[in-house]
Design goal:
about 15% strand, 3 strands, 2 domains, alpha+beta, 2 helices
């Protein structure tokens, strides 16, 4: 519930712990107590949500669709009862990086994704 109410700073911890909600171990409960301790120590700490577009040092490349020829006749059907949007539009930016075969022993790859809505990191 705290994640939904604006404590986005604990979303990763709660998400990781929720994988073990069916059969938690003692170690999972200890980690949950640490999250509660964090919330008690920093009750007003959170990540603020900002709808302004993010500022980049280097301009981002504009996304060019290369599949328009395959979907040139596609149209989006909107429900006429759909409410009109209020406020200003918010941009969603997704950054990703990967490293193929990063681990020299196991040859496992790693990847990372950062999703930003406006100027707020959400994932």
């Amino acid at each position: 519930m705290a994640c939904t109410l604006g404590h986005l700073d604990i979303c990763y911890s709660i998400s990781a712990l929720s994988r073990f909600s069916c059969s938690p171990c003692e170690g999972h409960m200890k980690r949950l107590f640490r999250v509660w301790g964090y919330l008690k120590k920093f009750p007003n700490k959170s990540i603020g949500i900002c709808a302004q577009d993010p500022e980049h040092e280097q301009p981002l490349e504009e996304f060019k669709t290369d599949f328009e020829d395959q979907y040139q006749y596609a149209t989006e059907e909107m429900d006429p009862a759909f409410p009109e949007p209020k406020g200003t539009p918010v941009a969603t930016t997704i950054f990703f990086d990967r490293d193929h075969a990063h681990d020299t022993e196991t040859r496992r790859s790693i990847s990372g994704v950062l999703v930003v809505v406006g100027s707020t990191p959400v994932s």
